Amino acid sequence: MKIIAAYLLAVLGGNAAPSAADLKKILSSVGIEAEDEKVNFLLSEVKGKDLTELIASGREKLASVPSGGGGAVAYSAPAGGAAAAPAAAAESKKEEKVEEKEESDDDMGFSLFD
User: Fold this and answer.
1) Cβ(5)–Cβ(34) under 8 Å?
2) DSSP letters spanning the chain
3) What is the C-alpha separation between 7 and 17, in angstroms, rounded?
4) 4 CB-near residues (< 8 Å, 6+ apart)
5) Do the beta carbons of residue 3 and residue 23 sit within 8 Å?
6) Where is the composition biased (Basic and acidic residues) (predicted)?
7) Burial call 37-72: b when 16+ CB within 10 Å, e when fewer
8) Is-contact 59 51, C-beta < 8 A?
9) pLDDT reported for residue 65
10) What is the mean pLDDT of each run of 10 residues along the chain (114 residues)?
11) Helices 2-12 + 36-46 axis angle, to 10
12) CB neighbours of residue 23 within 10 Å
């Protein structure tokens, strides 16, 4: 990934066809030693290709990768019907307020900043 980032920096900096030495110079400026075979592999894969086209084809490939998002959450109404919903919401708010007070009173006998 670091080598790809160096390639992108070189191209965006105006060098349409960076060499292995160019990429190594960029990486060494931030203290990274690049492996010759990885640099040469990247350059062989992108040789003669337009950066914009490479990014577009990469986006198409990433679009097909599952991202692992969660499913939809099912919500069921309380048994008492629509009238019971506001009452249940009010009760849960009261419980939250009570819990907050209990947490703030419990300092275990010492302060963090004493």
Assistant:
1) no
2) -HHHHHHHHHHHTT-SS--HHHHHHHHHTTT-PPPHHHHHHHHHHHTT--HHHHHHHHHHHHHTS------PPP----TT-TTHHHHHHHHHHHHHHHHHHHHHH--TT--TT-
3) 9
4) 42
5) yes
6) 91-100
7) eebeebbeebeeeeeeebeeeeeeeeeeeeeeeeee
8) no
9) 84
10) 92 90 93 92 90 88 79 56 54 55 56 62
11) 50
12) 25
The token pair that represents 83 in the structure block: 């009238």
CATH architecture of 1-64: Orthogonal Bundle (1.10)
Model confidence, pTM: 0.54
Taking the CA atoms of residue 67, residue 70, residue 71 and residue 73 in that order, the dihedral angle to the nearest 10 degrees is -160
Our CA angle for 37, 7, 51, nearest 5°, is 115
Q: Is residue 52 within 8 Å of 12, Cβ to Cβ?
A: no
